[in-house]
Amino acid sequence: MDKIILIVHMLTALGIIGLILLQQGKGAEAGASFGGGASQTVFGSSGGGNFFTRATAILATIFFVTSFGLAIVAKQNAGVSVDEGIPTLQVEPESDIPAAASDELSDSDLPSLQGDVAEEASAVTDNAANEVSDAASAAMDQAAETAEAAAQNLQEQATEAAAAAEEKVEENTPQ
């Protein structure tokens, strides 16, 4: 069935192309492609415009219907398969490669450190942690000193401003 629809679809497409190429342009005579002004009588007294226009409309409708039909046939033929196209891995039971011992495997992707390397890594880590802690303490002490100095400076300025305000009040108070 789909082959018949496809053949009709292709013939309709070719027919539409042919009719569009035969149609006259705006202001041109209908018989220009047939060799003269007397060719108006080939398609009747109204000329070829109505014939070509109707034929093109009919073929366009057929083209639409066959397109719709092909879509329906394609949807019906389409099937969903879960396993289709997925490659499967075939495992051979015996191999030349020896299996790893289970106690050699660890949960981590990182290699394990052994012996002196582990102790050295631990010492470096502890040293770095101590340096970071000392730097943080020094920064906190410096920030506390700066805040204390700023608070003392503000208190001195406030005391001076209060004294100046009292002087102004005394000057402006009538006696």
Automatic annotation (TrEMBL):
GO terms for molecular function: protein-transporting ATPase activity. Residues 98-113, 126-164 have a biased composition (Low complexity). One of its GO terms (cellular component) is plasma membrane. The chain crosses the membrane at residues 51-73. GO terms for biological process: intracellular protein transmembrane transport; protein secretion; protein transport by the Sec complex. It is a multi-pass membrane protein. It is found in: Cell membrane. The keyword Transport applies. Residues 93-175 are annotated as: Disordered. Residues 165-175 have a biased composition (Basic and acidic residues). Its main location: membrane. Pfam families: SecG (PF03840). Keywords: Cell membrane, Membrane, Protein transport, Translocation, Transmembrane, Transmembrane helix, Transport. It comes from the Bacteria. Belongs to the SecG family. NCBIfam families: secG. PANTHER family: PROTEIN-EXPORT MEMBRANE PROTEIN SECG. Involved in protein export. Participates in an early event of protein translocation. This is Protein-export membrane protein SecG. The lineage of its organism: Bacteria, Pseudomonadati, Pseudomonadota, Gammaproteobacteria, Cellvibrionales.
